């Protein structure tokens, strides 16, 4: 079960930049299932490449960017600090987003959520079917690369759907707390679904880990 720390995923994975001097390096998290566990909906080749190559690259590049930022801080080089912001945002976002994404999926996933999350979905979207249709449409409609998200608006106490470009992290760019993320970069589906993103979106609902999404909602909605 997730703790309230799930509400601040981005803050937990990317420490305050002022504390970089004493930080530990980021590492690639293990998947909670085998690469082939999500078949036939997402095949093993995609999962292996996505996790061991793409996510690993974000982790590696984030560590490099943070080390350069630490050096720039020590030198008082504000220009270098500013120049490193895009790399920190892109690679830090990639690490945050994928760390959530893997836990949002499960071989035992699919179906509908239960309990308070389902009630919140009905309250804010009318029905689960309408919610699913809207998040699918938003995710399909992302231009180029990016993510479709179900997030929690802490100030308004309600669920919201949003899209983020590239690897922009949901909480860091919109303030919404991430509950469910759908990766619509082509590396997440192209080897199996080619350029037909809607087919990938149709399939991924069969492996959504509603227990994980519910735990994130419970931790953040109190």
Automatic annotation (TrEMBL):
It is found in: Mitochondrion matrix. Mn(2+) binds at residues 50, 98, 183, 187. Residues 25-106 form the Manganese/iron superoxide dismutase N-terminal domain. Its main location: mitochondrion. Its EC number is 1.15.1.1. Gene3D superfamilies: Fe,Mn superoxide dismutase (SOD) domain (1.10.287.990), Iron/manganese superoxide dismutase, C-terminal domain (3.55.40.20). It catalyses: 2 superoxide + 2 H(+) = H2O2 + O2. GO terms for molecular function: manganese ion binding; superoxide dismutase activity. PANTHER family: SUPEROXIDE DISMUTASE 2, SUPEROXIDE DISMUTASE [MN], MITOCHONDRIAL. This is Superoxide dismutase. It comes from Moschus moschiferus (Siberian musk deer).
């Amino acid at each position: 079960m997730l703790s309230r720390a799930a509400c601040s995923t981005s803050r937990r994975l990317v420490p305050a930049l002022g504390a970089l001097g004493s930080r530990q390096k980021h590492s690639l998290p293990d998947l909670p299932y085998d690469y082939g566990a999500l078949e036939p909906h997402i095949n093993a080749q995609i999962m292996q490449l996505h996790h061991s190559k793409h996510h690993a690259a974000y982790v590696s590049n984030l560590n490099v960017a943070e080390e350069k930022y630490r050096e720039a801080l020590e030198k008082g080089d504000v220009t270098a600090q500013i120049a490193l912001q895009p790399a920190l945002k892109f690679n830090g976002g990639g690490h945050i987003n994928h760390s959530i994404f893997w836990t949002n999926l499960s071989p035992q996933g699919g179906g509908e959520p239960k309990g308070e999350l389902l009630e919140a979905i009905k309250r804010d979207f009318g029905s689960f079917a309408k919610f699913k249709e809207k998040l699918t449409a938003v995710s399909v409609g992302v231009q180029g690369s990016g993510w479709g998200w179900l997030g929690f608006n802490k100030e308004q106490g309600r669920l919201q759907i949003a899209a983020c470009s590239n690897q922009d992290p949901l909480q860091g760019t919109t303030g919404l707390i991430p509950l469910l993320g759908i990766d619509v970069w082509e590396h997440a589906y192209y080897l199996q679904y080619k350029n037909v993103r809607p087919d990938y979106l149709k399939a991924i609902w069969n492996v959504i880990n509603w227990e994980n999404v519910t735990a994130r909602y419970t931790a953040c909605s109190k």
